[in-house]
UniProtKB/TrEMBL annotation:
Belongs to the short-chain dehydrogenases/reductases (SDR) family. Residues 1-17 have a biased composition (Polar residues). The keyword Repeat does not apply. Pfam families: adh_short_C2. GO terms for molecular function: oxidoreductase activity, acting on CH-OH group of donors. This is Uncharacterized oxidoreductase YghA. The gene is yghA. It comes from Pseudoalteromonas carrageenovora IAM 12662.
Length: 299
């Protein structure tokens, strides 16, 4: 376990995880509260240095997993944060909110279902009311349910995955851009599944393909407002998403072991990439997708 995100060490042995198939039983959406083994969101390690001082950020899916790690890093870099989550994730949201407030910035959690367009508009309106503007938008919430056989993949699931992963990104972004000043940054969470889609993730993987194209097209549309748009493509990351139907339970003990680094990533290992894309340090980067894949690189 690192002492902060800068400590030099062998990345292969940075995290040791004991996993069994028994650990893998959660309903969708999963909760960090019952995730076994626990994930690292940088709560004990991420050290900020004012890289986002005074910025205002809206993050979807900020209660757990990658979104929680990003929220913690943004807060410690000096940003005020609004994050969204589902009402059933209240326990995780409370933990995240407490950690954010400990950073001395202003933070709010807003519960609601982003597969509903009118809620997406409300979320942006409430965020602007709290934050004053939106300098950073992280579209990170996502739905992933593994279905092995084509015949078993329902229209209902296909539509719900698209509504959550793609349509919500359109609705939230469209509403938010009106409140984003020049210098603002939009970061969308896509996936290695965009480039190397697995059988059994037909709906999910194809939403990630859509998100990658959405990101590049949007970047070219909104650069005339001085807004940059990029994506992050995680590889296999240890979060509740995978333990609550995202992967078949029997695959979880080996989840992520096949990448060159030989282990799944932790949410904390994603956060610095989001900080970089949010900050002015990445001023010449737009329409780009950055892989954080443990070596299972993007094409
Ligand atoms: P996670 O379960 O911790 O986060 C996903 C979040 O999405 C949930 O916390 C939930 O709040 C939110 N969400 C789902 N449906 C919603 C809805 N209808 N309304 C509002 N919020 C909703 O898991 P994570 O792995 O941190 O996922 C974050 C992002 O990372 C997702 O876009 C996921 O596709 C992507 N990703 C994850 C992995 C991985 O291996 N974990 C790999 C590649 C990409
Ligand atoms: Mg969650």
């Amino acid at each position: 376990m690192p002492t902060n995100q800068f400590t030099m060490q062998d990345p292969r042995s940075q995290y040791q995880m004991g996993r069994t198939e028994k650990d893998s039983d959660q309903p969708d959406p999963g909760l960090d509260e019952i995730l076994k083994p626990k994930a690292d969101h940088g709560e004990d390690t991420y050290v900020g240095s004012d890289r986002l001082k005074g910025r205002k950020a809206l993050i979807t899916g900020g209660d757990s997993g990658i979104g929680r790690a990003v929220a913690i890093a943004f807060a410690r870099e000096g940003a005020d944060v609004v994050f969204n989550y589902l009402a059933s994730e209240e326990a995780d949201a409370k933990v995240t909110l407490d950690i954010l407030k400990d950073s001395g910035i202003k933070a709010w959690g807003i519960a609601g279902d982003i597969s509903d367009e009118s809620f997406c508009n409300d979320l942006v309106a409430q965020s602007v009311e709290n934050l004053g503007s939106i300098d950073i938008l992280v579209n990170n919430a996502g739905k992933q349910q593994f279905v092995a056989e084509l015949d078993d993949l329902s229209t209902e699931q296909f539509c719900q995955t698209y509504a959550t992963n793609v349509f919500a990104m359109f609705w939230i972004t469209k509403a938010a851009v009106k409140h984003m000043p020049p210098g603002a940054s939009i970061i969308n969470t896509t996936s290695i599944q965009c480039y190397q889609p697995s059988a059994g993730l037909l709906d999910y993987a194809s939403t990630k393909g859509a998100i990658t194209s959405f990101t590049k097209s949007l970047a070219k549309m909104v650069i005339d407002k001085g807004i940059r748009v990029n994506g992050v493509a995680p590889g296999p990351i240890w979060t509740p998403l995978q333990q609550s139907g995202g992967q078949p339970a029997k695959k979880l003990p080996e989840f992520g072991d096949n990448v060159p680094l030989g282990r799944p990533g932790q949410p904390a290992e994603l956060a610095p990439t989001y900080v970089y894309l949010a900050s002015q340090e990445s001023s010449y980067i737009t329409a780009e997708i950055m892989g954080v894949t443990g070596g299972q690189h993007l094409p």
